[in-house]
Amino acid sequence: MFKTLLSPLLVIIAVIILPSTGKALVFLPMILSLAVSLPNHDKFKVKYKALGIFISILQSYTVFAGLGISLYLLDEFMPEIYIGENDFNFKGIALVTFGGYLAALLLFYFYSFLFRLTYLRISFIVITICYAFVVLVMQIFSNNEFLQFGVEKFTSFLISWLIFMSFAYSLCLNNIIIARQIKH
Fold first, then answer.
1. Where are the domains of the chain?
2. Which pLDDT score, from 0 to 100, does residue 150 have?
3. Model confidence, pTM
């Protein structure tokens, strides 16, 4: 149980220690990969732990960079979608929500090559539930009745994404809740 909670705890400590998370967005993929790979280094498929940690960091940066580029290109081709009387722009919400969920699934897919995993189908459900908590947290802490994924909210979205996804990955790697549900 401690290993499962250690990953999100490491993310929270790293975010608190960083002087300005907004200026240090480039370190967030590394924080996530270290928070997941260090407590779960015994689950690596590779022989050398340092190599596994390096591959984890490389995977994290690759997914974040690739997703950033694809969302930028998708932003260019996606039409503006307005809802409501005040012409609220739905496009930003759709891009960030879709992008965050896709990043979570894609990173876990890459982690499946690096870590020994069981119960892959249930792991994707765990990731989906944890991502729903990210959206719920953004909804609760939003000032409007809609999700506000503007520039001022993007950093808080990323931090909540890191916390909940590190928890989801840690649950999937350690099989604590999953194994109990399958046995009963």
1. 2-183
2. 47
3. 0.79
